[in-house]
Amino acid sequence: MPKLPVVSGQQLIKVLTKHFGFRVLRQRGSHVTLTNDISFVTVPLHPELDKGTLSAVLRDARVSREEFIRFVS
């Protein structure tokens, strides 16, 4: 299983919206909620996301590690 890269909350939002059909639903403080009409994910706007947080967001979004890594640049 490949290692997850270090990404910020903004980078994660950009990848989810551009490549996986998510759109920003709302923002409350430093947390942004996205949806693709099937699932909802909340992404904290931190400069670096912890590996566990990133893994949990990808799991909730139903995006595999391999798919995510392919689109992160």
Describe this structure as you would to a colleague.
With 73 residues, this protein is an alpha+beta fold. It has a single domain (9-71), classed as Hypothetical protein (Metal Transport, Frataxin, Chain A), CATH 3.30.920. It has 3 helices and 3 strands; from the N terminus they run H-E-E-E-H-H. Strand 1 and strand 2 form a beta hairpin. The chain is globular, with a radius of gyration of 11 Å. The model has no long low-confidence stretch (mean pLDDT 96).
Strand order of the largest sheet: 1-2-3
As a percent range, the share of helical residues equals 25-40%
CATH names the topology as Metal Transport, Frataxin, Chain A
Structural class: alpha+beta
Strand percentage lies at 15-25%
| SS element count, helices | 3
pLDDT average, as an integer? 96
Query: What is the tally of beta strands?
Result: 3
User: Sheet with the most strands?
Assistant: 3 strands, antiparallel
- Give the domain tally: 1
Low-confidence stretches: none
CATH class: Alpha Beta
CATH architecture: 2-Layer Sandwich
Distance between the termini: 19 Å
Which superfamily, in CATH terms, is the homologous superfamily? Hypothetical protein
Q: How would you sum up the global shape? A: globular
